Automatic annotation (TrEMBL):
<feature type="transmembrane region" description="Helical">
    <location>
        <begin position="321"/>
        <end position="338"/>
    </location>
</feature>
<feature type="transmembrane region" description="Helical">
    <location>
        <begin position="111"/>
        <end position="131"/>
    </location>
</feature>
<keyword id="KW-0472">Membrane</keyword>
<keyword id="KW-1003">Cell membrane</keyword>
<keyword id="KW-0812">Transmembrane</keyword>
<feature type="transmembrane region" description="Helical">
    <location>
        <begin position="279"/>
        <end position="301"/>
    </location>
</feature>
<dbReference type="InterPro" id="IPR043428">
    <property type="entry name" value="LivM-like"/>
</dbReference>
<dbReference type="GO" id="GO:0015658">
    <property type="term" value="F:branched-chain amino acid transmembrane transporter activity"/>
</dbReference>
<dbReference type="InterPro" id="IPR001851">
    <property type="entry name" value="ABC_transp_permease"/>
</dbReference>
<feature type="transmembrane region" description="Helical">
    <location>
        <begin position="241"/>
        <end position="259"/>
    </location>
</feature>
<feature type="transmembrane region" description="Helical">
    <location>
        <begin position="47"/>
        <end position="68"/>
    </location>
</feature>
<feature type="transmembrane region" description="Helical">
    <location>
        <begin position="188"/>
        <end position="205"/>
    </location>
</feature>
<keyword id="KW-1133">Transmembrane helix</keyword>
<protein>
    <submittedName>
        <fullName>Branched-chain amino acid transport permease protein</fullName>
    </submittedName>
</protein>
<feature type="transmembrane region" description="Helical">
    <location>
        <begin position="20"/>
        <end position="40"/>
    </location>
</feature>
<dbReference type="GO" id="GO:0005886">
    <property type="term" value="C:plasma membrane"/>
</dbReference>
<dbReference type="Pfam" id="PF02653">
    <property type="entry name" value="BPD_transp_2"/>
</dbReference>
Amino acid sequence: MILQLELGSLEVLFRETMIFIAIYGIYVLSLNLEVGYLGLPQFGKVMFLALGALAVGGIATKIALLIYGGTISAQLNISPLSDLDTYCSAYQYQTIDIINNIFTSMPLHGVGFFLLSLILAALLGGVFGILMAGPALRLREDYLGILLLVSAEMIRIIATYTPQVACGVFGAVVPDPFAWVGTDRRPWVYLAVTLLFLLATVFILERLANSPFGRALRAIRDAETAARVFGKDVVRYRIRVLSTASALAGIAGALFAFYNNVINMNMFVPYYTFTAWTMLIIGGMGNNYGALSGVVVYYIIDRVLSIYKEGIRQIVNVDPVFFQYIILGVIIILVLMFRPQGLVGEKPAKTLKRRVLEKLRGEA
């Protein structure tokens, strides 16, 4: 059936799948930093994905409305920030079209808006990560997992039923910073941008994992008491990891918001947390390439089941969505039974070669 798809459909399928792999790759890599390297029970990961999207739809978009308010008022005879209820319920799409037209004529404005959104997303995620570090230092692992899960739900519910945050149940329409590229080229440009951020994330986390900092994280994960005895400041390491991983998840949330062009805070349910956990378990914890392989395997399964969903319905008489849950559940059980380390298990940290160490010793 895949071979029967038209070339254009295959092209779209490949492009959209790669965008999701890039965005979720960043998201799962940030989870791997917390779970795989430090051993934190991060069951509220979706909170930071939501905060990244909120930074785009609830903060950066309002900044754009403030900057271009004069043009919007002249064309629509409304002031969006003065009457958010009316704007959210009736004028979002017209207003965002005006901003997109400005970005089309002035590309630097669009690029600036994109970079501002990512910075805000990283800052918002990082700040909340530091706030969550407080409980992480005082609670046992099981209670910490419950607290993070509840905190994520609290953020989602408050943001959903507070229209001033991100237009509440209406959802917030997001300006397109790449409107100047053109409709045909825009998806490919966005794919290139997301892949660029994914490569940067992999590079940074690989360097981090193979540094003394990364080896200290493994030591804290495997034997916290021993790490304390050898002088490692566990509190500082946890704060750094939570802030860094949360900032990365915020960037993933911002990229996700730009992909959808609209965000509804009610969509960020715990499902997104446990989807990331599924990818990480399949791929392997404590290994960045393992985390990425889990993302790839998950989306291959997802796309194949989506293509064959009607055939599946006829054979097993089960809703394809629930059938996908069954298949993924079986895969997780098999992985945990026969390959608990995942497809790509954790490997020893890379250190300098012996001859390099001897040379450095001689220079010292």
